[in-house]
TrEMBL record:
Pfam families: Rod-binding. Residues 57-102 form the Flagellar protein FlgJ N-terminal domain. It comes from the Bacteria. This is Rod-binding protein. InterPro entries: Flagellar_prot_FlgJ_N. The lineage of its organism: Bacteria, Pseudomonadati, Pseudomonadota, Alphaproteobacteria, Kordiimonadales.
Length: 110
């Protein structure tokens, strides 16, 4: 059984999201579909960015106690940080998605 580190798993998730976003933009037929796909890709990018920023904060929290620590907690924290990033991005985020969205639409015009 191969153990995959959290950083490797996050990198693979980022690569998968970028690939899905590119495929979604290429397969979008109408202008509205292209805009929806671009907006979704921008929000996914912001979610990953926010999760990468939150990760180090959660690494500093001690995990001592009778139920703390271990491999499972590391996996749970990784999933929690990913979902927290998605939730923050969905609620408006920090403004990165808006910039990325505009740039994706510019790239489609070319």
């Amino acid at each position: 059984m191969q153990v995959v580190s959290v950083d490797t798993a996050q990198a693979q998730a980022i690569d998968a999201q970028i690939g899905a976003a590119k495929a979604g933009l290429q397969n979008a037929g109408s202008s509205d579909a292209t805009k929806r796909a671009a907006r979704e890709a921008a929000e996914q990018f912001e979610a990953v960015f926010i999760a990468q920023m939150l990760g180090p904060m959660f690494e500093t929290i001690p995990t001592d106690g009778p139920m703390g620590g271990g491999h499972a907690e590391g996996m749970y924290r990784s999933m929690f940080v990913t979902e927290a990033g998605k939730a923050i991005a969905k609620q408006g985020g920090i403004g990165i998605a808006d910039q990325v969205y505009r740039e994706l639409l510019k790239m489609q015009e070319v």
